[in-house]
């Protein structure tokens, strides 16, 4: 698909360039031809004067001087000049056609690369989402089919089945909510921005957890949307708790100047996983046994991007990780 599109785009680039080039060539030829016509007229007038003088001299028995030669003394020389100009302009346009084709093919590739990358990401996104949805759906269908075949199904068993089905539905609902949030933030959700104190944001986010955090909060006002920033902090806190052993502290600090830090003392992130932790659906090998879909940090990064901020992670494998978010 993209190969055909690249060829078509190259053709359009070449056509546009050649139209411009030929327009300039025609304008140049018309300008030069006007000058040649003017020179032809001047030569004709000059020749007429010479003829009159020669006739006068002959009529009066006086010697007639020999005629002077010039590069443009007759119409044949002017016509040759025209042909040379046409040939030169034609050669120039052929060279431009060749160069524009090569350059157009290169530029078409550069133009289509981001689109191809976006399509690949979309395909991967759809594939990952389908895979994540398939697991609870398969479990749901299997349990229902087995229950329907069981003629001696009791009311208690039916309740357990419905409870299990409800858990599968809940997982699918969570995934769909994550996908909707990710889509909303990645497409540049229209958020109402105002002055927000990060200290208050962290206090509201931590109040939703039973976990006891080690807080070091200073007043730090940034320009942003409070609800989305609370969601950002919640994601980072949930991530830190998830990968921290029981009894280990999670340290949260807010520094003046719009800096938020969330540090855990868990198992850390392997060096090869660090470049991918903000990718959608990415889960390292050690995290596959935990709940989640690999979308939380992608959503967090999208929120930070919407606030023109930056997020990075510092991690030592086996020691813990620190997420640093900077605004402004």
SSE order, as H and E?
HHHEHEEHEEHEE
Number of strands: 7
Arithmetic mean of pLDDT = 79
Beta-strand content estimate: 5-15%
What share of residues is helical?
A: 55-70%
Describe the strand arrangement of the main beta sheet, using strand numbers. Answer: 2-4-5-7-6
Corresponding CATH superfamily of the largest domain: Histidine kinase-like ATPase, C-terminal domain
Structural class: alpha+beta
CATH topology type of the largest domain: Heat Shock Protein 90
**Which CATH architecture of the largest domain is right?**
2-Layer Sandwich
Largest sheet at a glance? 5 strands, mixed
Shape: elongated
Radius of gyration: 39 Å
Could you name the key traits of this structure?
alpha+beta, Helix Hairpins, Heat Shock Protein 90, five-stranded mixed beta sheet, two-stranded antiparallel sheet, 6 helices
Mind explaining what this structure looks like?
There is one protein chain. With 328 residues, the protein is α+β, with helices and mostly antiparallel strands. It folds into three domains: 119 residues; 62 residues, Orthogonal Bundle (Helix Hairpins), CATH 1.10.287.130; 133 residues, Heat Shock Protein 90. It has six helices and seven strands. A five-stranded mixed beta sheet has the order 2-4-5-7-6, covered by helices on one side. Strands 1-3 form a two-stranded antiparallel sheet. A hairpin with a 3-residue loop joins strand 6 and strand 7. Helix 3 packs parallel to helix 6 and helix 4 crosses helix 5. The longest helix is centred in the middle third of the chain and has 75 residues. About 2% of the residues have low confidence.
């Amino acid at each position: 698909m993209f190969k055909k599109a690249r060829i078509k785009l190259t053709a359009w680039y070449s056509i546009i360039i050649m139209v411009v080039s030929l327009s300039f060539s025609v304008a140049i030829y018309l300008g030069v031809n006007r000058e040649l016509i003017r020179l032809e007229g001047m030569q004709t007038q000059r020749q007429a004067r010479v003829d009159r003088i020669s006739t006068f001299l002959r009529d009066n028995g006086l010697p007639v001087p020999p005629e002077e030669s010039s590069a443009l003394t007759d119409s044949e020389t002017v016509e040759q000049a025209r042909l040379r100009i046409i040939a030169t302009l034609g050669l120039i346009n052929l060279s431009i056609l060749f160069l524009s084709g090569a350059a157009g093919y290169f530029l078409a590739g550069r133009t289509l690369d981001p689109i191809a990358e976006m399509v690949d990401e979309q395909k991967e996104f759809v594939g990952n989402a389908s895979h994540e949805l398939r697991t609870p759906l398969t479990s749901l269908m299997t349990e229902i089919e087995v229950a329907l075949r069981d003629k001696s199904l009791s009311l208690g068993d039916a309740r357990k089945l419905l409870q299990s089905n409800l858990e599968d539905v809940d997982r699918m609902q969570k995934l769909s909510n994550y996908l909707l949030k990710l889509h909303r933030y990645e497409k540049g959700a229209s958020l109402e921005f105002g002055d927000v104190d990060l200290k208050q944001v962290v206090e509201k986010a931590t109040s939703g957890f039973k976990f006891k955090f080690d807080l070091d909060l200073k007043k730090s006002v940034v320009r942003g949307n409070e609800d989305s920033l609370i969601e950002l902090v919640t994601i980072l806190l949930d991530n830190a708790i998830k990968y921290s052993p029981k009894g280990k502290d999670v340290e949260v600090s807010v520094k003046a100047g719009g800096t938020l830090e969330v540090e855990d003392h868990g198992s850390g992130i392997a060096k090869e996983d660090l470049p991918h932790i903000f990718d959608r659906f990415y889960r390292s090998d050690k995290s596959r046994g935990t709940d989640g879909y690999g979308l939380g940090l992608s959503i967090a990064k999208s929120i930070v991007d919407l606030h023109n901020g930056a997020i990075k992670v510092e991690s030592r494998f086996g020691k813990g990780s620190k997420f640093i978010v900077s605004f402004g």
